[in-house]
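Q: Can someone sanity-check these two? First one:
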Amino acid sequence: MLIAIMMIFSFTACGKENDGTGYLFRYDLSSDPQNLDPQVATDTSSLIVIRNIYSGLFTLSETGAIENSLALDYTISDDGLIYDISIRDDNYWANADGKKEQTRVTAKDFEYAFKRIFNPQTSSPYKEDFICIKNAEKIINGEVDYSELKVTATTDFSLRIELEYPNADFLSLLTTTPAMPCNSSLFHSTNGKYGLDPDNTYTNGPFYVKQWEFDPYGKNNHMILRKNKMFSEEMDISPSSLNFFIEKKYSDRIADFEKEDIDCIITDGSDDFIDDEDYSYTEYKYKTYGIMVNTDNSYFSQIEAREAICLSIDRGIYKEELTRGRTPAYAIIPPAVNILNKSYRDLISDQAKTTYNPSLAKEKWDTFLQNNDISSLTGVNIIVKEGTENTDDLNRITSQWQQNIGFFCGIEVLPEKEYNRRIEENEYLLALTDITADNNSPRDILSQFMTGDEDNTFGYSNDKFDEIFDKAIHSEKLSDSVQLYSDAESAIIDDYSFIPVFYESEYLIYPKEIQGIGYNPFTKELDFIHAKNFD
């Protein structure tokens, strides 16, 4: 084992070309991958590996643009219900020996993969993600067999997907890992071990799994991925290999990066790498923090109270004072969310979503106090989950409430378990919460406010929002949904039940000589296919 590890490091730059290609990239995973089955895996480490060893119909570029991968071309019917996709005929399955199987990836492999998601024996957690496919909901409800899912290989290299209703985000869904192909014969040949070791992991992507050392009690667990030469020559792979190591502690991953044992790191910006001229970074504003107001409370059920505390926040004044990695948020959808190949916030500015008007805020607050025959509102705290970085940022907001409307509010930091209990049992008045998503989509962000949604942890309900959001998710064209998402976002903000206060960032840090590593801050997947090292 020791010799193997030494060899990994000693041949780090072996074969590297002057154009930056041929480099062996190294990265620390935070845990051992649980399995490499795309229709089942959910842990971050597995998803990172899967992203680099499989290829689906479509992929996301570094800028979030949807690009063809194995799809050659596609058409969408006028009613938005039928997707006909032509597939490349030069993609093959490979396993641990890296040799081409005499099995091409076909449309049937995609049909089988989608039906696996809905096969009860698979126990896939992704069924709800693809509920827009025709018959999907009936299968979930036990009304029809999973084989009735309307995903059909019409020829060896033509796939038809029929939807129950239009979904403008459907192409984006086809970039996710559960939409990767699976070959029926190869799957069954593994006798239940699919994706659990190199010999039983059949891949069709840029890299294949050459070695996977896994010992639940060991400290030298690692994975070696090699360039898949059978991957289409027209789809260039820049690195020669990828080596993944397992370091569960964040401090150990940071130490490995400082020692140049790995080539990139994901941080929250609290370290010194951003200021170090030896490193470059890419920032992703992927999370929105906001104050959720409990409208079941007799006081905060009154819109004047909610409107007053929202209008009295001057986000511009604390812009330069926030903890690094945080910027003022005027809306709900964070800037890292992309749509139509751009940041959603480039298309719909957040500046007009919330306003600062201290005189109107004071007027609303005084009206609220008079209506309730009280001189002040006391004993109110914002509950905050333990581990939320730097509550000084929140103090800047509560200070403005005190100054502008005379509202004194405390901050109560709670252990996560107690915080969650208080939310679940509705025992709070104000709560700082964060909003992000598992996929890069305005839909996934806003769905957390939909009445009855499983991710709607606060029990928020707004009929106006529900109506607009329903139209947005059933839009035939993505361009139509942009304004609808904006209107839905405004419906929440104008209700003053969720008050956005700041966005939070993650940073991909890497040496100056490295380029082209892709990162998705929502799924936490890293993509090394176009990564280069020019050192």
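And here is the second, same format, sequence then tokens:
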Amino acid sequence: MKLKYFKYWTFTALMGIGMASCENFLDRPTEDNYNESNFYQNSEQCIQGVNYLYNSPWYDFQRGFISVGEVMSGNVYAGSSPYLNFTVNGTDNDLVNMSYSLWAAIGHANTVYNRLKTASATQQVINQCMGECLTWKAMAYFYLVRSFGAVPIVHDNTADLNSGSYNTKFKVEKADVYEYIIMTLEKAIELLPGKSELGRIDQYSAKGLLAKVYLTKSGVSGTRNADDLAKAAQYAKDVIDNSGRNLLANYSDVFRLANNKNEECLISWHWSAGRDPWTQQNTLQSDLAMVGFDEFGDCWGGYKGISVDLQDAFGISALESPDSRSDIDTRRQATMMMAGDVYSYFWQDKGGFDYLKFIYDGEYGKGGPAGELQTPTGANFVKHLYGNNNDHILGLGVSAGNMYSGLATHILRLSDVYLVYAEAKMGVASSTSDASALAAYNAVRSRAIPNTTPKTTITWEDVWKERRLELACEGDRWYDYVRLSYYESQRAINELTNQRRDVYYGISDVYKSYFESGSWAVSTDVRYNPDAKAPNVTISSFTLPFPTEDVVFNPNLMKDPIHVDVRSEYSY
């Protein structure tokens, strides 16, 4: 946490919110008609002043969101990425940007929260905006503690600047960081309305996040804490029973542009379709889509692939013919593109997007992969893609462009809360037949697999797997391994070590032959890499290194963490 970032937080949180947006929900003031001293003068300005917390501070986390959440967890193959083989160091660009983005989110939230204390607006609106600030702050700390372990607490960055303590802060023990997150969310819940407009954080958004925090914290001491699990279940159940929210009927609809703001999504990054200023936009399609997927020349993610191991988890294989594979889980096609897949919601002006035709038909896929499957795993990304510009206009009414879209990134969904409840209700047992836990689990599973027989008993393993399938490629899976490592580290290590994280040989030839002839032929030369090496996973793998610059700036980051009674030390 370098000095320039502390200064940046304070300055930009007050003065840098002059950005244009294409959605009323994200309207922001223009730079030329206000300054900090004359802003926050009414309710509308207070809402505008907090809107940018839904995107800009998080922009530089987008790549780390995938690299850490999905590549490290074994859901995504990314070639020689250090996240794939657990060799990340403190100079890695994605790591550095991720860290600075999370600290910036905290700094911005702190500064806007404090400025709102003297705002001229209705108390109801001030409370709502302050609650949103605290929820975003808690979310940033939740990512930090699960990524880096013990971290410093920056309760008020302006106060730390004034005291000169910004470069001497010590890390705080993980358990205390979790308690600080809980304290922050409790205050947010007190301030937030019971229900807000779709897309905005409300009381149940914070309660859903608090449930997940308690579930994660429950193992931090080395054994699972029954009281924390009970709290997780309590808050999750409150959301399930009282929020008025429901799962969308069709899983893939959650991730479409037209549903950027929907009742299932409790907390989302809401991006704007533009580059002025840079940081307001979603750029994930550029990093994850095959070359030529849109018309802006900005897609280079085709060589990343959905891992063989995640395919295994779905019970399917790229080596199976699409005419015969057991493909009953609707989440599979909504998560990964494979041979035989056609998408009605991509390339709508062309009658839909045909995966193999795009790769192997030079006219249809003009500017695309030119006859060569880019990913060596046989499966490409679907989530975080919006399609072509026509799809973007149909979904949002505005154009996308080079490295920008307005597709929302959902980071806490109701289905996640359902599964948090099912696991927390199980407590320290290995299985449960509790009716409410079964109802939550089966609601998630039955949406994904229509007509499936509801389970009458669920195990911890059932929920563990369901979380992977439900939330795959949503930046979450690695953090499940982190929380498992708190109390059962060898189990987490063994599972990661035994994953199929490598590639298939010859899969492009199989796909091409199938496209051209309609027949599926897999020779003995087509196989999973027989020389694939297991990653070197140790207990230290579950804690990322601090950026090297931060350690140089503050050597105390290399010292043992300290205990802080956060309830006594800090208050809101």
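A (reply): Looked at the second one. The chain has 22 helices and twelve strands. The chain has two domains: 3-275+541-569, 284-405.
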